[in-house]
Protein: Histidinol-phosphate aminotransferase
Amino acid sequence: MSTWRDNLRTIEPYVPGEQPNLPDMVKLNTNENPYPPSPKVVETLKNFDCDSLRLYPDPNSQVLADALAKCYGLQSDQVFLGVGSDDVLAIAFMTFFNSKKPILFPDITYSFYDVWAELFQIPYERPALDDHFDLIPEDYYKENGGVVIANPNAPTGVLQSLDFLRDVIEHNRDVVVIIDEAYADFSGSSALELTKEYDNVLIVQTYSKSRSLAGMRIGYAIGNPELIRAMNDVRYSYNSYPMTRLSVALGAAALEDEAYFRETVAKVIETREWTKKELKRLGFSFRDSQTNFIFATHESVPAQTIFDVLREKHIFVRHFGQKRIENYLRISIGTQAEMERFIRETEQIIAQNR
Ligand SMILES: *Cc1c(COP(=O)(O)O)cnc(C)c1O
Structure:
């Protein structure tokens, strides 16, 4: 007998880092910003007109699109908004990857890419990063249905140069190349300027990491107006009001406070550099991270052991079971005080397990 189960859409979902809520925890497992959102955001929230919530929001989220366009020196028709960059990326996959040829992204990268490819039934291939976690440009020269590159890459933290990206784009003028810049603000480098030169390049960024607003869910894409229009057509075909009134207001407010943004990013970078020195001292090795996390492996103590003991002490880092990286930990950069506690505990674990 047939049942409704015969027609189920089955898929193995993406697994985000856990969100524990313990008063004494140090949470270094999902790359959130350790600093609160800008005081401008807090003020905007306090003065928010709650009566307005009975009305639907502006379907175009024009206030936020305009604010982002102004911030980056663009026109607002070059900006696409989404409920976090996960939403933006999913819509980009749906919009641009409708070829029978496989899309390409590295074997070690943001683990949502293959989930979306599976969900939207997009064929894909994952060329292996080299042994130093660098992308191999020639892997992206072959015929394909599109290219996705996280730059800096996650979870490796490695930044590829603008010349590298330009080379890959030059070899892929007939497909859309998505550059996921979730961590670009911590690298001092962005491929944004390439959207002016190439009509097939889409840059995706987020408020979740560098702008301390992961809980608000705001992401955006920047590209030429034809790409943005195509994405909006897909978006409005299943949800007309993606951005809430509150996310539009707070997203625009965050952009008004450039000084705070720079200051908090600089603090994260300073603590990252301190943490790198300490991790080296303890016998860890890692590629030089240009993000707000460090992806490190220890010379003698297994990653799983360190992960488990830290967890008992309510220090949460991320461990991936995937082949090639099972002996690595991804450690988000917290406040200086949080990283000092992390290093203290890790030093003990290493002393006890050598
Ligand atoms: C965090 C992250 C995202 C998603 O961020 P949102 O919170 O959905 O904006 C996208 N890509 C990469 C590589 C990330 O690390």
